Request: fold
Amino acid sequence: MMSKKLAEGTGSLVLDVKFGNGAFMQTIDDARTLARAMVDVGNLYGVPTLALLTNMNQPLGEYVGNALEVRESIEYLRGELTPPDLHEVVMALGAAMLMLSGVAHSFAEGRKILEGKLSSGAGLEKFAQFVAAQGGNPDVVEDITLLPMAPVAREVFARTDGFIAGFDTLGIGMLGVEMGAGRKKIGDIIDPRVGFRFLHKTGDFVRRGEPVAIVFAPDVYQAEQSAEKLAALIKLSEKEVPRPRTIHRIIDSEGERPFEWEA
Reply:
């Protein structure tokens, strides 16, 4: 991984190293070891490198799925959808890039610059340029219906009153693959339309029968089957559940410390 990034002639490098039940490194200690090694390699080769340890014990943002995640990106850049956890990670990674490039002197200053770009529409304009450069239709940023959309949507309802206690994010990913969002083997056809939308986060209280997620599928049968499976992957608790922290630590050439916006 690091050899590829260094061979590209990168001027500086910011890494998002995830931990949790849906990540390659399931524990924060393993993620810390991996991040420390990558940061050390980058700095050893003269590339200023920084890593953030971020939580993957629940889906980031609201959407999971190919076209659905592109839709979420566009809605985010248009200011129409701003999930707090997604916004925090985007701001932190972007601020870190600005710091390593010398544009900002702190995470707080970097965040202020980025929020200005979001509110001015400059972020959306740049996204459209990226789409065009890769042969896509940049008009999608103005007309989101140009994205492939599943014909069937089914809500997933809470089975009892309770607090969202957690998500089986690996199971959610594998369910997406089963629906066609990813490949099981070379040659499998990906369906960009399918996926999920999550309406609640860990720590939220929900009532029995309240929608907690939406399944997007190509037909009614798969929608109903996948909705039943997805419900089992969202854990509920009678007891109050603390809301998890999204960004835990920062690792750079100076060492390791808790992530703070004022840093």
Q: What stands out?
A: The helical segments are 2-7, 28-44, 66-77, 84-100, 107-120, 122-133, 169-179, 220-232.
